[in-house]
Design a protein that fits this description.
- It is a single chain.
- The protein is mainly alpha-helical.
- Helices cover about 80% and strands about 0% of the residues.
- Helix 16 crosses helix 19.
C-alpha cells in the first residue's frame, strides 16, 4: 500500500473506533465522545496497540503517515486554543472582580500547591519523571499547573450537556475558569522562558503588542465574514512568531485569540466552529497525543503517579473553592458543585502537557501519567455534578 492509502486507513481508525465505542456502549453520561477519543488515542499508541500488534502498528502508523497526521494535529489544536482565547470574557470578570479574583485565585492556588507537592514526591520516589532540559523548579511548577488547569472549552460542552450553560451557575463557573485560563498561559510562558533566547522573546512580545493594537483597530471595521479569514491569518502569524521566539506556537495561538473580542462574531457561529473543529480535525490530535504515551518506567508506576496527581488535583481544587465559598458567603453546596466543575481537565491540560513534553520539561512517562489523570478528572465531572443539579431543580 502507498502512503495515501495508509493515511486513509489511519483516518478511518481514528474517526471510526471512538465513535463505535461511544455509540455501542452509550458512554455519553460518564465519558463524552471527546473523552472516548482521547482514551482511544492512548490505546492506539505504542504502549498498547504497538505492543500487542507491533507489525500492524509499524505498517499503519509509519513515519510518513505520522508526519501527515502531526501536521493536521498542529493546526487543529492551534484553532482550538485560538477559539478558547476568543471566548475569554474578561469584561464581565472585571465587573465582578472581587468574587472572580478570590474564587479563581484560590481555585488555582489549591491544586497548584497540592500538585507541586505531588511532583516533589514523584522526584523523591524514583527517577525518570523530569525532562532533560528542565530545572527542578520548572518540572515542579509545570506539574503543579497541570493539576490546576480547568479545561474551558470542554467545560462549556459539559455545562451545555447538563443544560446550565446559560444559567447563572454556568455563567459563574465560566467566569472563574476564564480567569484561571489566562493565568495558566501566563505561567506557562514563564516556565518556557529561555534565557538564551530572551531577546527574541522580548522582541516577539513587543512586536505583538503593537501589531495587536493595529489588528484590533482594523478588525473592528470589517464585516464578520472577513474577520474569520483575517483571524486565521493572524493565528498562523502569531503561532510562528511565538515559536520562533522560543515560546511555543500554542502560546501564540492563545494570544492571537485573547486579543480578539468575542462580540466580533455571532455566538452561534463561534459555537459551531468549535463543534466542527472537534468533529473534523481534533480526533487526529487525540491520536497524535496517544502516540506519545510511554510506560517504560513501568505500567504500575505510571498508574500510581496518575492516581497521586488525580488526588492532588481534585482535593486541591475542592479545598481552594471551598475556602472561596466560605470567604464569599456562598449558599451551602455551591462550593462542592463549582469545585467539581472547575476540576475538569481534558483538552487544555493535554495541550499544556504536550507543550511541556515538546520542551523536554517532562518525560513521556510523566506525560502519560498526566494524560491518564486528565481523562479520569473529566470522566468524574458529570456523574458527580448531574445528580446534585437534579436535586436542586
Amino acid at each position: 500500500m502507498n502512503i495515501t492509502e495508509l493515511f486513509l486507513i489511519a483516518m478511518t481508525i481514528i474517526l471510526g473506533v471512538p465513535y463505535l465505542i461511544w455509540r455501542v456502549f452509550r458512554t455519553d453520561y460518564w465519558a463524552p465522545l471527546v473523552v472516548v477519543q482521547i482514551v482511544t488515542g492512548i490505546v492506539l499508541g505504542p504502549g498498547v496497540l504497538g505492543k500487542i500488534f507491533p507489525d500492524y502498528y509499524a505498517t499503519v502508523f509509519a513515519p510518513p503517515v505520522i508526519g501527515a497526521l502531526n501536521g493536521i494535529a498542529w493546526w487543529a489544536v492551534m484553532v482550538f486554543v485560538w477559539i478558547a482565547g476568543i471566548e475569554l470574557d474578561l469584561r464581565e470578570v472585571w465587573r465582578r472582580r472581587r468574587e472572580c479574583g478570590t474564587t479563581a485565585g484560590l481555585a488555582l492556588a489549591g491544586p497548584l500547591v497540592a500538585g507541586c507537592l505531588a511532583a516533589l514526591g514523584m522526584l523523591a520516589w524514583r527517577d525518570g519523571w523530569m525532562g532533560e532540559a528542565a530545572a527542578t523548579w520548572q518540572f515542579v511548577l509545570g506539574v503543579g499547573m497541570a493539576c490546576s488547569v480547568t479545561a474551558l472549552p470542554i467545560l462549556i460542552l459539559l455545562l451545555e450537556k447538563m443544560n446550565i450553560l446559560r444559567e447563572p451557575l454556568g455563567m459563574r463557573v465560566l467566569r472563574y475558569a476564564s480567569l484561571d485560563d489566562l493565568a495558566i498561559w501566563g505561567v506557562l510562558a514563564i516556565i518556557l522562558l529561555d534565557w538564551q533566547r530572551v531577546g527574541h522573546q522580548a522582541a516577539f512580545l513587543a512586536v505583538f503588542a503593537v501589531t495587536a493594537w493595529l489588528f484590533r483597530k482594523w478588525m473592528a471595521r470589517l464585516k464578520e465574514s472577513d474577520r474569520w479569514y483575517i483571524g486565521l491569518i493572524w493565528l498562523a502569524a502569531c503561532g510562528y512568531g511565538a515559536d520562533w521566539s522560543g515560546l511555543h506556537y500554542m502560546v501564540g495561538a492563545f494570544l492571537a485569540g485573547a486579543v480578539m473580542d468575542r462580540d466580533w462574531f455571532t455566538l452561534e457561529h463561534l459555537d459551531k466552529l468549535r463543534e466542527h473543529v472537534l468533529l473534523v480535525v481534533m480526533p487526529v490530535f487525540f491520536l497524535s497525543t496517544g502516540l506519545r504515551t510511554n510506560w517504560s518506567v513501568g505500567g504500575t508506576a505510571v498508574f500510581v503517579a496518575a492516581a497521586l496527581l488525580l488526588v492532588a488535583s481534585v482535593a486541591g481544587k475542592l479545598a481552594g473553592v471551598g475556602l472561596a465559598g466560605k470567604l464569599l458567603g456562598w449558599a451551602r453546596g455551591d462550593a462542592w458543585t463549582i469545585g467539581w466543575l472547575l476540576q475538569t481537565k481534558a483538552l487544555i491540560m493535554i495541550i499544556f502537557v504536550n507543550i511541556l513534553l515538546d520542551r523536554h520539561v517532562i518525560t513521556s512517562e510523566t506525560f502519560t501519567a498526566l494524560l491518564l489523570m486528565a481523562v479520569a478528572s473529566t470522566m468524574l465531572t458529570v456523574p458527580i455534578v448531574a445528580p446534585r443539579l437534579k436535586r436542586l431543580v
